[in-house]
Amino acid sequence: MNPKVSIIIPTLNNLENLRECIDSIKKQIFTEYEVWVIDGKSSDKTVEFLENLEAPFFWKSEEDNGIYDAMNKGISLAKGDWLYFLGADDELFSENVLQTVFSKEKYKTISLISGKVIYKKGNRPFIYSKKKNIKSPSWSFLMWIRNGLHHQGTFYKKELFSKHKYNISYKILADYALNLQLYRKNEKCFLIEEIIAKCSTEGVSKKGGKKIYKEEVMLKSQNSYRILFPVFYLISGIKYGLKKRVDGKK
User: Fold this and answer.
1) pLDDT higher at 105 or 82
2) pTM of the model
3) Which one of 10, 19, 115, 138 is CB 3.0 to 4.6 Å from 192, fit for a cystine?
4) Domain boundaries, the chain
């Protein structure tokens, strides 16, 4: 019997993109899913759109404390065996994505499944090379350098969230903080070659501001030893400098 997947979509005043996101889910061959759209009380016509959705699409609209607070609300509502978080401005890559992921036998013995994401064309480089638009997952010691799992490419066993939630004190990198905690606890992650989602390059985590790198230093330090704080600060400083250099060449 196939597992059931809960897809959680946080959104705020992003109706045009949300429509496309929902359409990409409706096209899926795999049908053992439910969808929770967690709206931050949008002032556009998002709620009107949501009111016309039918099961397995469900929704909640109320003020929240940011993206990760919305994702935590979705976790509490989800009934699936696996959870997947998709941004309102993202889309599943093809109609075969869920069918391909959950045809893998290994999902029965691991806690995470992660594949590739491809970035849509946008005005902002998402990494240190403008030529790269595909991000592959990794689950290794390099997690201490950068987040090896993109949340739009990753499926989480629901039971993981009985002990973990997104830490909303991190406004930008709570997904990285969660993944690093799971890596430290030696959770098993099955890496696959499939492209899972088409993602926007305009999200807050792609803008390269100083706040991102300050959060990165903090989350790494809180999950490691204070003596390593200068090392994490140096790594983040180098990454910030490289990001500024790419932005300057645009």
Assistant:
1) 82
2) 0.86
3) 115
4) 5-202
